[in-house]
Amino acid sequence: MPTVLWFRRDLRLADHPALVAAVEQARADGDEVVPLFVVDPRLWAVSGTPRLAYLAASLRALDASTGGRLVVRHGRPAEVVPALVREVGAPAVHVSAATEPYGRRRDAAVAAALGPVPLVASGSPYAVGPGLLRTGSGDPYRVFTPFRNAWLDHGWAPPAPRPRSVPWADVRGDGLPDAPATDVRLPAAGEAAARARWHAFVREDLETYRTDRDRPDLGTTSVMSPHLKYGEIHPRTMLADLAEAARGAGAPLADSVATYRSELAWREFHADVLWHVPTAAQESLRPVVPEDAWADGPAADAAFAAWAEGRTGYPVVDAAMRQLRAIGWMHNRMRMVTASFLVKDLHVRWQRGAAHFMAWLVDGDVPQNQLNWQWVAGTGRDAAPYFRVFNPVTQGRRFDPEGRYVRRWVPELRDVPTSAVHEPWTLGLAAPADYPPPMVDHAHERRVALADHARRTT
Fold first, then answer.
1. Count of domains in the chain?
2. What's the domain range around 212?
3. pLDDT at residue 251 in the model
4. Which of 65, 144, 156, 417 could crosslink 382 through cysteines, CB 3.0-4.6 Å?
5. Looking at the structure, do residues 324 and 427 belong to the same domain, yes or no?
């Protein structure tokens, strides 16, 4: 009667409390562990091709780490999981707790279908599970800084020990899913790749993270978001490594550790917001402009297409959108710049941009993507004020001062001098003929956005 470990957003063997619990139960019963992954048609249908291709690679890595014993079944979890339990006579199904709206509903349906067989949740994809932290009055946190302080005060458990050996059961599966074809250049997937990337970042780039993290031209950010998305590494592991790096460190490294830790706290804050307000995945948490301020119709569709394809005429925006299509990832500063441009220069609703990102991002994660879009749009919890409108030229000059990032992703501008690389239209007749002029006047659209906001607030 082997127990079942159902993998979801935890495609690893190290620091995996649910695995530890499954192994302990199996050993107590003198039996084995069935490693299960369910290809859920609902999630598969709404996931972007780059994300599915990455997931397929991550599952291959996980299968290899289980000695080829990963059991992949296709179908609705509420049907597949109970069927496997009946097939092997499992006494329990172990999981990492789901925290997103669909995952919570799915697990409730699976638990009901399992009947007397328990669905045992151990740990979650977060250092501090969403919903655990409350204000002194018992309310959810609405502002990030108090949440982060409470998160730091609460602390987290040390990484769970990896079992020295796991008695994996040999059970029939439907076979690993094929990776869909994509032109996106994907990063290496799997637990080993995640740990290698993380250790390289800590060793080479962590010390300058605080000063360099906003520079897309330097390529020194950790790029751990795809690994965190699928749980190839747990944030608790990363936090333990950060604490070790900071022990006895001088100011630059200690400051960078604190800054990186704060970025992990933002991830957990967004998950907490979505836990309390599941509708935040699609609905603004607060209105910021009148409904008639949003662009609709063919003109809005054309503007959106130009933005999505990197043809806005603003180099740093176009570079970022082309980076997204090329590698399924975008620098965080550029995510803010491109989102601001869509919402406040083109006056397109944030939901449309969020959906485009989810279609292309390898790290597409519901709470992070949707709540970050709401932050830029000014509609979320502790969001940037609506009147904060990113100037794409200023952002380019400040964070890509030599134009290296722009020239990498916008080849039409490779021969433009640095003085004009972020506003090539100033070259007049010498401007590259194959690069479009600005599709809108930023100064004018900023005034429109602020006027719309004023109409809402007066």
1. 3
2. 192-276
3. 87
4. 144
5. yes
Burial of 351 (0-12, 13-18, 19+ CB in 10 A): middle
Q: Residues 51, 364, 334, 304: what is their CA dihedral angle, to the nearest 10 degrees?
A: 80
Query: For the chain, which ranges sit under pLDDT 50?
Result: none
Q: What pTM value is reported for the model?
A: 0.96
State the Rg of the chain over Cα.
23
DSSP assignment of 276-306, as one string? H-GGGGTS-SS--S-GGGS--SHHHHHHHHH
Q: What pLDDT is attached to residue 48?
A: 96
Q: Is the Cβ–Cβ distance between 334 and 398 less than 8 Å?
A: no
Which CATH number characterizes residue 411's domain?
A: 1.10.579.10
Q: What is the pLDDT of residues 378-412, one digit of tens each?
A: 999 988 888 899 999 999 999 999 999 999 999 99
Q: What is the pLDDT of residue 56?
A: 98
Of 344, 342, 334, give the one whose Cα is nearest residue 307: 342
Q: What's the confidence (pLDDT) of residue 396?
A: 98
Q: How far apart are CA 52 and CA 224, in angstroms?
A: 17
Determine contact, residues 166/287, Cβ cutoff 8 Å: no
